[in-house]
Hints:
There is one protein chain. By secondary structure, the chain is mainly α. It contains 16 helices and two strands. Strands 1-2 form a two-stranded antiparallel sheet. The protein is globular and about 65 Å long. 34% of the residues are buried.
Amino acid sequence: MAQAVVGRQVAEGHGFTTLVNHPQSFAWAQERISRGKFVNVRKPLPELHQPPLYSAVIAAAHRLLPARWFNGDTTLLALNIVLLWCVAMQSFFLAKNLFGEMGGVIALLGVMLSAPIWAATVAVNGAVLTMALWLALFQVTWSAETRVMKACDGSAQTLRRRITMSLWRPALTGMILGALFLSDYTTIIVAPLVAAVIWTKVSDWRVFRSLVLIAAAFIVVAGPWMIRNVSLTGNPVGFASQELALKAGDPTAEPATQRAMFTTDSPAIDFKKLGNKALTSLQRGAGERLWSGGGIFLAAFFVAGFAYRFRDARANRLRWFAVAVIASVALAQAFLSSGRASAMCGCA
């Protein structure tokens, strides 16, 4: 709900500030005051712990809806249900393109009948927004695969024209990666995978053009927020970087305990504890989250598909790209996140 508070602050014109006061934030304010950087502690302090995208979406809903309609939890749940339907329709169209009409219907039913996805929806933590962004990335990847295949079958002149027209795809990919980063910082791990895919699909100087477009679009989307965090805390992700050394549920490394300390110093990284945190997260993800509720059918269907090679080469490539994304995000979450939220909901 901390992100909802920030969303209301944005909607009311107070910027990305929060009424959820942590002693750590007040320690940050005192440090800035001592260095001669004015901070008015009587006003809400800036949000320094959370990514901003979900709060921005809440703020947009707050401004678009009449005041009498925006009544807290109910409206937030309705917003998440709308996002869930966006995820369901994206799943339908992606599966329809891959496997036909019936595949789209099965994917739609799988999403709407999955207990973990509904649990993420009612949790009101932005996980459904992350799901929509993951599916958007897969949609763009599928579109690029289709364009490359058509281009390879055409003449040299047609190939040049199609490559020129496809400049928007790298730009859109960079924008989606930027949005993913602003919804969950650990998703930055996907950027090297996208670069590797482009390296294998685009030849000559065009690969550098595509990478430059992706990087430029990413900076346009995420750059202002990173600059803002650097100017405030010296770190592009603010105090969220401390989650590397924290673990939810561990009394010696509890995130809430760290935020309750009147200090901005990052906790020391214990590599033994870090390895234990990662192993516990991976075991829980593979043993509980992946198979819970209706997820057992979707996961089993996905894993069983490894034994088959699809007739459409594009579907094979997209499948392995999805596997690489899920694996990399699971590892990033295991090491970099404290475990308070699960971005793997967005991959599942």
